[in-house]
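re: ur msg from earlier - yeah i can do the zinc ion complex, just paste it... oh wait u already did. ok heres what im feeding in:
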Amino acid sequence: MTRPDATDTTSFSSPLAAAIALLRDARRIVVFSGAGLSRASGIPTYRDADGLWKSQSALQFSHAEDLKRDPAGFTKFWGQRMSVVESAAPNPGHRALAQLQRLRPATRLVTQNVDGLLTQAGGLDVLELHGSLRRWRCDHCGNRSGPWPFHRCLRCGSHARPDVVMFGEMLNPGVLLEAQVAAQESDLFMVVGSTTIVYPAAELPELAMARGSRLITLNLEPLPHLDDSAAVVLRGTSEDLLPRLLAGLGG
Ligand SMILES: [Zn+2]
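and the outut:
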């Protein structure tokens, strides 16, 4: 008996089986993840009803200029957010993606998340589009290495700020370019727990598909703008589905 052709995903018994076949046949996989991946780790998301950005202080300190306006309030607010992230642990979804990368070393992990949990789970060279809440950087000279006595940079004396992209700021162009190239070179692009509405999340799957990459969407809610173009749509949580995908791959 011949193995079902992974290019015809309708011949599989379930979407999960079809996704496993696509992963097995892919040479260069890009996994693009968003807040849904970290929800089971207790990381508050930007846009959920109970999200990070609903509180008044979040609105006050979500722009980098807020540091100059109120350095003490800014530092306190972000310090608290950073300690939430620091005490969070990777969930089975993060661990499955790190495992996928061990099985298939050409796999690139691109994320909108700033919690560093993919790296903590063992992911390598994770492309963090929005930076990381696991480190500070100098607001002036870009120094990323501490210590930060009184939240000041030891090189230039300026204030420390979290190394994340805040509202009104540009993404790190080098990280973005690497993600775009990875998307274009991929033959399988998987969206995990991201609504992929905001830039550049919206652009990356399009870049991949324009070069012939197949698309898998894995999300709790439908993604109307992407699901129609996907070879496989997986509906559910990443902490449930990703370990099952990996088990199917023999990982
Ligand atoms: Zn500095």
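cool cool. The chain has a mean pLDDT of 90. ping me if u need the other ligands too
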